[in-house]
């Protein structure tokens, strides 16, 4: 049976896509058949033919070198660089949970492990009209445990503790935290790591520095986090 993990973050621009690419790269190199999935993606650009390209998916595919077709990675792709709920209000084509599930089920029939990525932070609205859908609804629909990506710098204790507290209150399983833009030897960032673990009870499974091209955890270790 296929397994998976969901990558969320403490907010926008914490490096979820960057980390997701490295997770998939490591697992592919370890021999796993793996795929990427993101329910909704906004802020995308068009190619020379005017076709809208899912930028996060393209980055992940390029970094990880997985063989999954780009068009199978994300069912909802928007051009406007705003939250998906507003992008769909501007452009049309609002997210439907049946389509999200249908596309995900196609992947689990074909691949051993799926790494799903969220949009923005845990409270990101994906649709907000006559129907209200938030990121946590997609996590629950897919039935996946989570990894939280956070920036290692100033303010991360607050953002990590608030994110973990909210997710725990909603019974969303959390497997670990990854700190991005981490600098070994930086007193504040080393303390941030310790405090995030102490205040949440969630382990920091790895720390990633600027421009890393690999993870210091094994593909097997990553797979063990999946459900």
Automatic annotation (TrEMBL):
Its EC number is 6.3.3.3. One of its GO terms (cellular component) is cytosol. Substrate binds at residue 42. Its main location: cytoplasm. ATP binds at residues 56, 117-120, 180-181, 211. It catalyses: (7R,8S)-8-amino-7-(carboxyamino)nonanoate + ATP = (4R,5S)-dethiobiotin + ADP + phosphate + H(+); (7R,8S)-7,8-diammoniononanoate + CO2 + ATP = (4R,5S)-dethiobiotin + ADP + phosphate + 3 H(+). Keywords: ATP-binding, Biotin biosynthesis, Cytoplasm, Ligase, Magnesium, Metal-binding, Nucleotide-binding. Pathway: Cofactor biosynthesis; biotin biosynthesis; biotin from 7,8-diaminononanoate: step 1/2. GO terms for biological process: biotin biosynthetic process. The keyword Ligase applies. SUPFAM superfamilies: P-loop containing nucleoside triphosphate hydrolases. The active site is at residue 38. Homodimer. PANTHER family: ATP-DEPENDENT DETHIOBIOTIN SYNTHETASE BIOD 2, DETHIOBIOTIN SYNTHETASE. Catalyzes a mechanistically unusual reaction, the ATP-dependent insertion of CO2 between the N7 and N8 nitrogen atoms of 7,8-diaminopelargonic acid (DAPA, also called 7,8-diammoniononanoate) to form a ureido ring. This is ATP-dependent dethiobiotin synthetase BioD.
